[in-house]
């Protein structure tokens, strides 16, 4: 193996290592982002459920009757 072949081989290995490192770093960030997306979706679903309960309370006729009596 002559000098230029060795230089090309070292440069190719260095570039390949950089590409592999970038690929694995991207894969790790995708996994962590996916987990945070799932947590946000779960929180949104819980908040929607709470809003539905509050809407049921506010639109309940007993609640409105109590409000009207309190205003008198």
Q: Give the number of domains.
A: 1
Distance from first to last alpha carbon: 100 Å
> Outline, from the CA principal axes?
rod-shaped
Which structural class best describes the helix and strand composition?
A: mainly alpha
- Please tell me the overall pLDDT: 85
The fraction of residues assigned to DSSP E strands is under 5%
Helix content: over 70%
Treating each run of at least 4 consecutive H or I residues as one helix, how many helices? 2
Give the topology string: H per helix, E per strand: HH
Could you describe the largest sheet, including whether it forms a barrel? none
pLDDT < 50 stretches? none
Radius of gyration, Cα only, in angstroms? 31 Å
What does this structure look like?
The protein is rod-shaped. The protein starts with a helix and ends with a helix. 0% of the residues are buried. The longest helix has 57 residues, at 3-59. The protein is built from 2 helices and no strands. It is mostly helical and 72 residues long. It has one domain.
